[in-house]
């Protein structure tokens, strides 16, 4: 009996021991997949957030990225989550935050030993700084990325990243006007992407072809340019910024060829993409070409509408780039509260550099203001000389260039018969009142009205054409046409001196701004008043102010 009980106890102990062993064995078997899931789940969430969530809900994706950062323990995971946030802000068009997060990721690179992510962060920053107009800083990150990408072991990943970095170098060389070097970088880019994996990088490869199209367009080799645009178009199946630039390029070629019908087709496709895009560069380029199309076809009304759109895109792009230009790049990372603390020594250095930068900016602003004031005085002195000459030179004769300008906007039909004083024409009180009214008229901008004429102005001043013609001839030393044209040119000169954006506008836009119906009439009157053509005057003004070399509508040059 005792023997039987002993065996029963032994069997029970063995049973429980067997169950424990099974549990341990189960835990051991499942431990590896669980650890693997934890290890690779971070990357999977990053990828899913980037690819699947972004088109639907960027705020939701940003919350996910923020959660990933807070849960990340390894520096590499922090870099990945920060770059994910940067990419999301880029998609939302918030470049300041995008650069902020990417700079924070860059500050952690010295804590990791991963050539791929070192290269990805540098490539992203190179692209962002290019888009906000900081080309030298973009080049710095591009070169860093190229060096680190050479250490990537996976050939496909290495080729993909090197291809994008070579594109950035091509953009930089284009900005410098070195088109031959730009072509070499694009060829390197295409070689890096590789023929075997071209389908996996179709959009990036298409971007390389699109850039080549832009380069040869600027070199005026339109046949080669169109060939590359066609290659890019064949690779793009969905709407995107690159496809918009391709259509705009094809439309630009047709404009140069004066093939208005085909130009309209391509430019409508480009506009369709630009209107739904956040890219100000694309909008600016497309609206510029459409403006040229309507000017070429003689539709001045629609041309003016797209001129306004162009100016709006240009101003937005300039404002955004100027905002970044005054921010010390070293301070960008400080905007993110979650970034790692910078050492006291580095903080002190940054503050000193910032103070120095502010001092330099202030110095050049004061210097620029003095130069502008000096130039303004030169111009005003010139205008006074022109005005004073009118006291002893006839302003309207059949042989002078100025008098022969047919300006349809102003009509002086009272003739020269009222120039001689007629004592019975009006009382001295009426004459004084009209002079006061004319002084008020000169302070406003009614003279820019395209309907301006002697009768129109007389009605505005509540007088008759004879009185008005007499007072202008007698006291302003000019006929009505010359008087109004001089006011218009003085108005546009003041705008060119005091507002830099006016120097970026087309001459036709300046003409429209001050009431002239055509480029040629405005240019003729401008030169008659200032002795400069509008374009020469603007170049001289830019040189005096040591401004950047901005070219009007650079997309169309």
TrEMBL record:
Keyword entries, A-Z: DNA-binding, Membrane, TPR repeat, Transcription, Transcription regulation, Transmembrane, Transmembrane helix
TPR repeat start-end pairs: 206-239
Transmembrane regions: 348-366
InterPro entries associated with the record: Homeodomain-like_sf, HTH_AraC, TPR-like_helical_dom_sf, TPR_rpt
Keyword Protein biosynthesis: no
Domain HTH araC/xylS-type: residue ranges: 432-540
Gene3D superfamilies (alphabetical): Homeodomain-like (1.10.10.60), Tetratricopeptide repeat domain (1.25.40.10)
GO molecular function, one term: DNA-binding transcription factor activity
Alphabetized PROSITE patterns for the sequence: HTH_ARAC_FAMILY_2 (PS01124), TPR (PS50005)
Name of protein: DNA-binding transcriptional activator FeaR
UniProt source species: Chryseobacterium carnipullorum
């Amino acid at each position: 009996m005792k023997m039987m009980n002993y065996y029963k106890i032994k069997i029970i102990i063995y049973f429980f021991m067997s169950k424990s062993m099974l549990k341990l064995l189960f835990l051991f078997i499942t431990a590896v997949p669980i650890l693997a899931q934890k290890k690779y789940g971070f990357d999977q969430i990053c990828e899913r957030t980037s690819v699947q969530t972004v088109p639907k809900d960027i705020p939701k994706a940003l919350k996910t990225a923020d959660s990933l950062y807070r849960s990340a323990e390894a520096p590499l995971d922090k870099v990945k989550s920060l770059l994910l946030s940067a990419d999301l802000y880029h998609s939302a068009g918030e470049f300041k935050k995008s650069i902020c997060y990417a700079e924070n990721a860059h500050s952690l690179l010295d804590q990791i030993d991963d050539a791929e992510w070192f290269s990805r962060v540098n490539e992203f920053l190179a692209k962002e700084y290019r888009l906000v107009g900081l080309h030298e800083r973009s080049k710095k990150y591009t070169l860093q990325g190229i060096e680190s990408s050479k250490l990537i072991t996976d050939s496909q990943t290495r080729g993909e990243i090197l291809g994008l970095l070579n594109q950035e170098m091509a953009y930089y060389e284009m900005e410098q006007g070195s088109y031959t070097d730009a072509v070499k970088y694009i060829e390197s880019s295409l070689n890096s992407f590789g023929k075997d994996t071209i389908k996996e990088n179709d959009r990036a490869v298409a971007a390389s072809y699109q850039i080549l199209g832009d380069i040869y367009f600027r070199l005026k080799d339109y046949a080669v340019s169109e060939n590359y645009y066609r290659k890019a178009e064949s690779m793009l199946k969905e709407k995107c910024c690159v496809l918009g630039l391709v259509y705009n390029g094809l439309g630009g070629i047709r404009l140069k060829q004066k093939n208005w019908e085909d130009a309209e087709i391509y430019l409508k496709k480009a506009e369709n993409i630009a209107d739904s895009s956040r890219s100000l560069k694309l909008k600016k380029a497309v609206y510029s070409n459409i403006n040229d199309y309507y000017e070429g076809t003689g539709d001045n009304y629609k041309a003016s509408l797209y001129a306004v759109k162009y100016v709006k895109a240009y101003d937005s792009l300039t404002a955004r780039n100027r905002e970044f230009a005054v921010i010390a790049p070293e301070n960008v990372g400080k905007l993110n509260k979650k970034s790692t603390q910078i050492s006291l020594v580095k903080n002190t250095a940054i503050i000193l550099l910032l103070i120095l930068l502010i001092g330099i900016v202030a110095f050049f602003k004061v210097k620029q203001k003095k130069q502008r004031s000096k130039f303004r005085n030169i111009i005003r002195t010139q205008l006074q000389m022109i005005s004073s000459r009118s006291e002893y030179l006839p302003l309207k004769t059949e042989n002078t260039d100025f008098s022969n300008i047919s300006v349809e906007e102003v009509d002086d039909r009272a003739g020269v018969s009222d120039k001689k004083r007629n004592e019975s024409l009006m009382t001295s009180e009426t004459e004084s009142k009209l002079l006061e009214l004319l002084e008020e008229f000169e302070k406003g901008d009614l003279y820019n009205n395209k309907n301006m004429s002697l009768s129109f102005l007389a009605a505005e001043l509540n007088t008759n054409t004879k009185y008005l013609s007499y007072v202008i001839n007698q006291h302003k030393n000019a006929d009505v046409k010359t008087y109004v044209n001089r006011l218009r040119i003085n108005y546009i000169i003041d705008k060119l001196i005091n507002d830099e954006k006016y120097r970026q506008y087309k001459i036709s836009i300046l003409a429209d701004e001050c009431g002239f119906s055509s480029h040629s009439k405005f240019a003729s009157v401008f030169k008659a008043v200032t002795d400069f053509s509008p374009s020469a005057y603007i170049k001289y003004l830019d040189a005096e102010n040591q401004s950047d070399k901005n070219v009007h509508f650079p997309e169309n040059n």
